[in-house]
Here is the input.
Amino acid sequence: MLNLAIVILLSYVIGSIPTSLMLSKWIHGFDIRTKGSGNAGGTNVFRVLGWKSGVFVMLVDLGKGVLATAVISRLFWDPTLPFYNRSPFDDFTIIQMICGGAAIVGHIWTLFAGFKGGKGIATGAGMLLGIAPTEFVISIAVFFIVFWVYKYVSLGSIAAAVAFPMSLFVRHNLFGDEIASYRTLIVFSLSVAILLLYSHRANIKRLLEGTEKKISGFARKKVQETSSPR
Here is the structure.
């Protein structure tokens, strides 16, 4: 159990690294949560600081999910779980998902910024990349298609979160593809999708009300109305 506790804690700490806050405070002299939507995620960085900073933050946040699932999960790995696995789920995939889930929780409720972080989409995407790269590619494609059509990052993120378990289900059950640890992946990906939908509940409300802000003009370095002197 000690090994399991260690990898969970490490994954949570890695996920808690507040990339957007560090960038906004160290480079621009303000807390990103005081500008734009008030969120510490990559989308708000896009709005406030421009596309270059937004891409940087999202890539780092994605890397946190990959690191947790592909590296940290193996650091203290034992061939068997520290408890008897009564489920039909694959042991190591469970460890990877626990680590990835801990990183997502760390990103949303960051240890280093008063438990107020981002919404977990980029870190969740990194977790999916580390576990199921085919479904990751499908989800990313869905994100860009939805975003390109509607110009809502939140809507694209929600669609991508839902697309992952759906693509697993379609590939396995309709096309007959053999997917390693399918039952583990489908249950956990549904859980992650629900968590990400919950973290986007305010966005969903604004989308339904028609008040959600679209993203446009990425070429601008900053959004002037939200910029702040150092």
About this structure: Residues 51-75 form the longest helix (25 residues). Residues 2-226 form one domain. The two ends are 47 Å apart (CA to CA). Residues 218-230 have pLDDT under 50 and may be disordered.
